[in-house]
Amino acid sequence: MTKNKLTRISNVRVKDLFSLYDYELELGAQDSAEDEKISIFYGDNGSGKSTLLRLAFHMLAPNSKQGHKSHLLDVEFKELSVTFNDGSIVKAYRKATGNGEYIISVKRVGKKPVEANVFSREARDSDVDLHDKVEPALRDLDCSLYLLSDDRAIQRAGGNMSSDEFIRRRTLRSKGIVIDEFGRARHERLDVAETPEDMAKQLLSEAIETTEDWFRRRVIGSSSKGDSGVNDIYKQILKRISDSGGGSSENIYSKKDIEKKVNELQEQSRKFSNYGLLTEFDGKDILSFLKSTDKATMSLIIDVLAPYLDSIETKHKAMSDIYERIDTFVTVASRFYTNKKLTYDLRNGIQIWNPNKILLKPHMLSSGERHLLLLFCTSIVAGGSPSILMIDEPEISLNIKWQRMLIDALIQCIGDHYCPVN
Prior knowledge:
It is built from ten helices and 16 strands. The protein is of the alpha+beta class. The strands form five sheets. Strands 2-1-4-5-6-7 form a six-stranded antiparallel β-sheet, covered by helices on one side. Strands 9-8-15 form a three-stranded mixed β-sheet, with helices on both faces. Helix 5 (about 195-245) runs antiparallel to helix 8.
């Protein structure tokens, strides 16, 4: 998987939260690179952990006119600040403890600090500094934000897919309209979520669809990169022939090299074909042909085979990152399920089977199994780009064994990104 610079929070500070609590959480001292990916907030019920996560999410959200900054108006505090590992600081503060109007500021390394007043909801659009200075500065942090709250609702802000688009899709879905991976709309029967149980089922269905869509888009993008790489290979071949004056060029590979590469590509292709990412490469006939070819024609055979095998290898390399994300998702989720099997392939998406090979709908899972699948879908998508994933009470509905396994599983799913957990 391609390594990105880890975007993480190194310090969270709040003064006079509810006029009761002062917290300063230093998150920078970690024992290992794995520990650096995740921070756990724990404390007594009612001590403000969930509120702190929500405050941080809404303060950092760069999206306009979606109520993010208004959320802070209702919460009583004097100062809230979030410091990133690169030294950037986002802060909301008031002259005195209370709720209502506050000032938000963004300080980035090497850039001029910006700030704006946030007034009441009725006047929240009156200060152009919020929209013209602060929100662009927050977008400049270049980080997707996800908040999975204790009611299992998912909120997203920032990143490549704008929160506006995310909200648009959810709004259309509420009207029975689904947007597919190509941006086309289709109508589906509308199931209205009237109870918390119905809402939980609907949220899980949305998370699964989002994950499947995310996988498909990256497979398509990786396939395009692979095709581009194949074109480059054949350009190099043509140049080599041109440089040789039209005569035969010296072989780069020996017979042994070709046999080794065929065997390696066969093994690699099985992994990709298991998830429907690429057609399985069968090199048996090639290996058999190499054994029966005489030395006089071997050089010509290698000239023909080498670019073909290089093109397959290029496609494999292009698909390796998304393969790792899919394989991580399937492997991690499968560890938790007993007498059930989670599978994925490009055509059918995410599926769950019982021991009798009967396909189970997501709503047929137990509450704990549904909760886990929601967590893993959210974290695997968040881990695909610079992101901060905030999870409130991830242990809800999980037995003790699963609670002990959960943190390691989340670390694997989020990849090289950051996850504050309450």
